[in-house]
Amino acid sequence: MEDIKTITPTINLNGTSREALLEQKTDLLHALREAQAALRRATPNGRDYQLADPSWFERALERHTRQCRVLAKLVEEVMDEAEAILESE
Questions:
Q1: b/e per residue 27-55 (b: at least 16 CB within 10 A)
Q2: Residue 34 belongs to some domain of the structure
Q3: 61 belongs to a structural domain
Q4: How many domains is the chain built from?
């Protein structure tokens, strides 16, 4: 995932309130953390690959690790966005 600068919405009377924006980010963070928990529960088990090519488990574990990193990065970005909204004037 490419690093991009956090872009913060401008809080104003015509736009979404700070509280609503923070609620959206909080809801999103909750869902992402639920997804992280589900992904951890789905960690590949070597016993499920014992009759397959020996590299399959290794490849499945690498893919799973990449997926965990992607979700962790997304959580980090959403947290940065929420902090920026909280700190904006």
A1: ebbeebeeebeeeeeeebeeeebeeeeee
A2: yes
A3: yes
A4: 1
